[in-house]
Give the backbone structure.
Amino acid sequence: MNTPLRPPLRLGIAGLGTVGAGVVKIVQKHRDLLTARAGRPIEITAVSARSKGRDRGVPLDAYAWEDTPEALASRDDVDLFVELIGGEEGPAKAATEAAIASGKDVVTANKAMLALHGQALAEAAEAKGHVIRFEAAVAGGIPVVKALTEGLAGNEVIRVMGVMNGTCNYILTRMQNAGLSYQDVFAEADKLGYLEADPTLDVGGIDAGHKLALLASIAFGTRVNFAAMEIEGIERISIDDIRQAADMGFRIKLLGVAQMTGRGLESRMSPCLVPATSPLGQLENATNMVVLEGDASGQIVLRGAGAGEGPTASAVMSDIIDIARGTRLSTFGQPAAALRPTQGARASAPAPFYLRLALVDKPGALAKIAAVLGDAGISIDRMRQYGHEATTAPVLIVTHKTTRSALDEAVEAMHGTDVLAAAPVAIRIEEV
Ligand code: HSE
C-alpha cells in the first residue's frame, strides 16, 4: 500500500546567482527523486534576485517574482526561505530576520552572516521553534556540517582542521607547480573569476576563517566567536618559501585549526607547512579538505569541491530535504541559547617552525643567528644555506618544537643583530 504524500514543502529562493540557479535546476531535474526521498514534493513558489530580466539558463516563469528578498521572506505561501544572496549585513540579513519573524525555517549558504550574526539569528529562529541550516556555507559540496552535527555527535571533538578556501589553495599549488610568483598567480586567479568581489576575503584568510568559526561552534558547543580567531592570509608567501619548503619535504597551505584548551578556544587560520606526503599536503588546486578528530572516531578526512554551482547547490539541497523530511536540527547542533561563551586563546602548544632568513654574507653571521636561537631555548633540527644572491645568503632553518612566543622573541632579537638583510619569515609546521 502506498503511503499518502504529505503536502509539498514550498520554497522561496532569494538570490539567483550561480548557486541559486543550481538549486532551481536540481529541484526541476530531480522532482521525482526528491519527492520519494522527502516523502513529499519540494516546490518553488517564488524567487527574488537583483535583476529580473537576466537569462540564468533555467526557466523561472512558473514562479512568482518578488522585487525584494524581504517581501519574498514574508510570503504566506512560502514555508522555507532559501537565502543565497551573500554578504554579512544588508539584504541577506534583513530578509533572514523577516523570514524568522514570519515563522519560517531558513537555509543559507552565507558564512559571513552566520559567523558574525549566527548566534542572534539562531536564537531568534529557535525561540519561535524554527531552524536555520547552513551546510553550503562551509566547504561547498563536502557534507561537513552534517558529519560533525550528526555523524560525530557521540564524540568529544578533539580538533577540527581544514583547507577551506579553494582560491588560496589554487594560488599556492599553482605557484608550486608552475614556479610563478604570488602576484602572477593572483592576476591569473582574478582572470579566471576565482576571487571574491573583495579578494581580501579569500587571500586574507577571512572567508576560510568564517567557515572554521562555524565548525568550531558545532564541534565544541560554544558560541560562534569569529573575533577571537587568529587570522593571517597568504599574501606574504613567496615563491622562495614554496620552493624551499618543498625542498625540505613540506607544502604550504592556508590551514585552519580549532581545538579546545584549558585556556579557551584556540582557533587560527594561517599559512602552515604540512608534510608533502600527508592528505593535506597532496591537496591540489581549488579542492577543499576538512579533517575531523573525535575521541571515539579517530581522524576523519573529507575532501571535495569547496565551491561551484553543482557542489554548493547539492549542499543547499541536503538541508532542504532534511527540513522536508521533518529533520529539524538546531543550527549549531544544540540549542543556540545553550551554547557556552568562550574566550579565544592564543596558540601555545609547541610546534616546529620553518624560518627563512636572508643574511648579510660576512663571517660570523650564521653564528649570531644560532646564538640568538640558542639563547631563546630553540633547538635547530635542520638547516640549509642556499647559493648567494648578490651580497646576501639565503638560509633556511627547521626548528625542533618550540612555542610561538619563544620564536617571536628570537625573531625580535635577530632584528637587534647586524646580520639580517631582510625580515625573517617564520611559518609554523603543523602536525597533521
Ligand atoms: N571564495 C571561496 C573559495 C568560495 O575560494 O573557496 C566559497 O566560499
Observations:
- The chain is about 35% helix and 25% strand.
- Residues 165-167, 196, 202, 207, 306-307 surround L-homoserine (CB under 6 Å).
- The first strand starts at residue 9 and ends at 14.
